[in-house]
Amino acid sequence: MTRPAPIRPIVVFDLDGTLVDTAPDLLDSLNHCLECAGLQRAAPQELRRFVGMGGRVMIERAFASQRHELTTPRLDELQAVFLDHYGGNMPGRSQPFPGVIAALDRLGEAGYLQAVCTNKYEALSTRLIASLDLTERFAAICGADTFSFRKPDPRHLLETIRMAGGDPARAIMVGDSRTDIDTAKAAGIPVIAVDFGYTDQHVRTFSPSRIISHFDELTTQMTEELLAALAR
Hints:
The chain is of the alpha/beta class. It has 9 helices and 8 strands.
């Protein structure tokens, strides 16, 4: 009797601040919204305080930083302005972080499935990834609106894994923020944190499984060690 092929291990990546450096374009679109509202532009160093939960939350945080009231109807309007500006200028200056392509190649050649789990809207995520010619590398691309829940809800990660044809028992998350780390921990999945992403606190604060400073450090030896520990 032929045994079924084993399910391939999977690495799930966050998008903004992890795979792709989208900061210049996110900041441009945020500042477009702030200017429309008559507020001061945000400085590049402020972006880390605002990102992590999608454009809507980014606008809310930017308004709060200037102690400016923001009603829900006004937020809805500005979110639409943000999305129109951001989507209309994609991919802009966004580029994969150094070493990303080589890391994806290594994992793919080693038989890993790969997927994206992000709090960016799915349409924007797939459009960005396509514009960078990366679509075929991912078995699933799941955004904030793919399901009725999103990170840090662990179901966002778990359902992304299942949609990609993976198994949570053989999965690893790679992200840049507390949101990613908390999501992976809640799902019972090892998490590798990059320390160059978009967060106002160093990722070590949130105790990920491993920390890397360049994608050259994301080796199959590291992933195999994490999966082996998970299986114990």
